[in-house]
């Protein structure tokens, strides 16, 4: 579903590479943690998948297509197939929960009847039934992240990318968010999550890809945050 083939990325004006000769293959339906110190290249790897950054060398494939060769007008279609969730939620502050989730469907031209059907379904899936009329600032951090996940998942993308989704949440709330991401993964969605959160990685026991100074130093099935046998 996602394939990095000897990918390097050096940002203009930077002396060192953000990623260096990275090869990773993520199958459809996998759940992968991307771990590593700050600056090790995790966000850069995620940005390459979205074609928000382009590789300096090597190839990035998403669903069999080399996305660096994708025509510019096809990039929005690529991004539509990839839901994104971030540490800071990024909700629209002046819209209700319903409107935040509906917006993701409206911008891709879904009919009003489909929006009316799918939004409540998705809010129920993320455990926010009955909260559709709230404003984001009337929700806890964990609930806001659930809205962000609902918005990312509402059009059933093939891939969900999460960059530090538990970074602003306490451990108990993080467990709930991870259960939700796990549930989404079980629907067949490929999940790639960059994180510093030892607790969630150790608890979930999924594949762990560790970056250090832009290089893959570990790729372990059912791994923990740190290396163990
Ligand atoms: N837009 C940019 N322009 C120049 N250099 C950048 C840019 N984005 C990232 N870098 C550099 O690339 C390297 C990798 O950064 P990246 O953000 O991918 O790391 P990260 O592992 O996601 O870190 P963090 O955990 O702090 O988010 C760092 O040296 C960083 O300074």
Automatic annotation (TrEMBL):
Keyword Ubl conjugation recorded: no
Membrane topology: Peripheral membrane protein
One GO term describing the cellular component: plasma membrane
Major subcellular location class: membrane
PANTHER family: CELL DIVISION ATP-BINDING PROTEIN FTSE, IMPORT ATP-BINDING PROTEIN
Function: Part of the ABC transporter FtsEX involved in cellular division. Has ATPase activity.
Name this polypeptide is given: Cell division ATP-binding protein FtsE
Gene assigned in the entry: ftsE
């Amino acid at each position: 579903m996602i394939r990095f083939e000897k990918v390097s990325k050096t940002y203009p004006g930077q002396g060192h590479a953000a990623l260096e000769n990275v090869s990773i293959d993520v199958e459809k339906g996998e759940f992968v943690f991307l771990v590593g110190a700050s600056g090790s290249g995790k966000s850069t790897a995620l940005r390459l998948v979205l074609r928000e950054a382009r590789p300096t060398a090597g190839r990035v494939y998403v669903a069999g297509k080399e996305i660096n060769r994708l025509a510019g007008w096809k990039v929005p279609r690529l991004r539509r197939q990839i839901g994104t969730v971030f540490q800071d939620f990024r909700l629209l502050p002046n819209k209700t929960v319903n409107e935040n989730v509906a917006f993701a469907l409206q911008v891709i031209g879904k009919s009003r009847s489909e929006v009316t059907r799918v939004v409540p379904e998705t809010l129920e899936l993320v455990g926010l039934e009955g909260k559709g009329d709230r404003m984001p600032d009337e929700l806890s951090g964990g609930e806001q992240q659930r809205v962000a996940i609902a918005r990312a998942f509402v059009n059933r993308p093939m891939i969900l990318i999460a960059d530090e989704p538990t970074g602003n949440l306490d451990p108990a709330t993080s467990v709930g968010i991870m259960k939700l991401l796990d549930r989404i993964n079980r629907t067949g969605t490929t999940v790639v999550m960059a994180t510093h959160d030892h607790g969630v990685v150790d608890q979930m026991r999924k594949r762990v890809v560790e970056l250090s100074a832009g290089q893959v130093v570990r790729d372990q099935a059912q791994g923990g945050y740190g290396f163990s046998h």
